[in-house]
Amino acid sequence: MPVLTTARLELRPPVASDFAANMAIVSHEETARYLAAHKGPADHFARFCRNAGSWMLYGYGAFTVRLRSEKEIIGNCGVFHTLRGLGPDFDDQPEAGWILRHDQVGRGLAREAMEAVLEWFGGEHGGRRIVCMIEPGNEPSIRLAGKLGFTPMREAKLPEGGAVRLFERLPR
């Protein structure tokens, strides 16, 4: 399993003991406000397991992120495989996503992590189209998507009813 390092970060595939820290991150009100489909521990556990399955079945998934100088988990960022019921232009595609702990936002860490992930993904899996979804109103993530080469596709509703904006990143 890959371990990526950047100037400030270490990224590694998740392990079972990461669940509680990740649950705490997505449960914080500052973070949860942008996670339209997050519905509590059972839902998060299913998502956590889906990510582990992505690693097993496809050879890629979200990485657990920590600062290199610390052991504490500060988020997860990566490219994973999922089906969301959003249509053939989005489902069954590699999907990018980034979530950082509320006190780590605004430091350029998500960009640093995702640039490393996208470079690794391209090297391991070739030039492929990657999609992402962002809740309307999450302007920092929308700006980051643009910096990472994602362009708007369309707006959509999740099967649960939450609104999202869909983006794609074409192979370079």
UniProtKB/TrEMBL annotation:
InterPro entries linked to this entry: Acyl_CoA_acyltransferase (IPR016181), GNAT_dom (IPR000182), N-acetyltransferase (IPR051531)
Tree of life domain: Bacteria
Every N-acetyltransferase domain range: 9-171
Pfam families per the UniProt record, alphabetical: Acetyltransf_3
PANTHER family listed in its UniProt record: GNAT FAMILY, PUTATIVE (AFU_ORTHOLOGUE AFUA_3G00765)-RELATED-RELATED (PTHR43792), N-ACETYLTRANSFERASE DOMAIN-CONTAINING PROTEIN (PTHR43792:SF16)
Name of the molecule in the record: GNAT family N-acetyltransferase
